[in-house]
Amino acid sequence: MKVKEYLMAKMRDRTIHMTLMDPAKQDPARAAEVASIAESVGTDALMVGGSTNVTQDNLDATVLAIKDCSELPVIYFPSGAQAISRHVDAIYFMSMLNSRNIRNVIGEQIKGAPIVMRLGIEPISMGYVIVEPGMKVGEVGQADLIPRNRPDLAVAYGLAAQYLGMSFLYLEAGSGAPEPIPKTMIQEVRKYVSLPLIVGGGIRTPEDAAMTKSAGANAIVTGTIVENRDFAKALGDVIRAIRS
Ligand code: 1GP
């Protein structure tokens, strides 16, 4: 089964959870360990990517190590075309819709598209929208951040992604954000946009996860949680809140 179909099938039944690992933040052996613990506590897919310091070498080594010890789909979450791994199961072929820099909207995609074709990686089209505070990804992506009190603007971006024919919409508060995307914003986007909705950034507790799910997210991404040495219980609690 293709990765997009796998995700869509799961999202038809319930909200899913994806674990994000940054190849620059641990060595491949640790990434493999993190992936297998995340799988054992019920994550549905693995995402690999980071805003800075992702190289072809650390990306390939991380993906290969993860693939060795997990059956879950591994999806590349790129910050540009400088590194693309042939070993992933799919790539989010994404556009940062609210970047002021055209490079993040379509430039890197033009560089990456022929590589994705040549390597035969499944592209999953995604509109990526950065909400305040945006953290590192907002800064390096030169995002015109969506203010937290402007759900209408998030809806407008979501509708634009839908009308442009994208498959998924990702609302991102930024890795390590002090708070997740506001509930009202998720609810408004859910009300008007029919694309599968991925939400991430700042989700660390079962309460954050439950709020994000009940507001209407189809998929919840967490990354920072697995940067702690002993994360199994914390991640398990978050995933249980998403599944219950
Ligand atoms: C970042 O949305 C993801 O791209 C995950 O964020 O690290 O805050 O969980 P956290």
Overall CATH class: Alpha Beta
* Category from helices, strands and their pairing: alpha/beta
* Unreliable segments of 5+ consecutive residues: none
CATH architecture: Alpha-Beta Barrel
Rg is 16 Å
Largest sheet: 8 strands, parallel, barrel
Tell me the series of helices and strands, N- to C-terminal.
Answer: HEHEHEEHEHHEHEHEH
What multimeric state do the chains show?
A: single chain
**Order of strands across the main sheet:** 1-2-3-4-5-6-7-8
Strand content is 15-25%
Number of strands: 8
In short:
This protein has 244 residues and is of the alpha/beta class. 44% of the residues lie in helices and 17% in strands.
Helix and strand topology:
Elements: H1 3-13, E1 16-21, H2 28-40, E2 45-48, H3 56-69, E3 74-76, E4 90-96, H4 102-119, E5 122-130, H5 135-140, H6 151-163, E6 168-172, H7 183-192, E7 197-200, H8 206-215, E8 219-222, H9 232-243
Parallel strand pairs: 1-2, 1-8, 2-3, 3-4, 4-5, 5-6, 6-7, 7-8
Helix pairs in contact: 2-3, 6-7, 8-9
The chain binds SN-glycerol-1-phosphate (1GP).
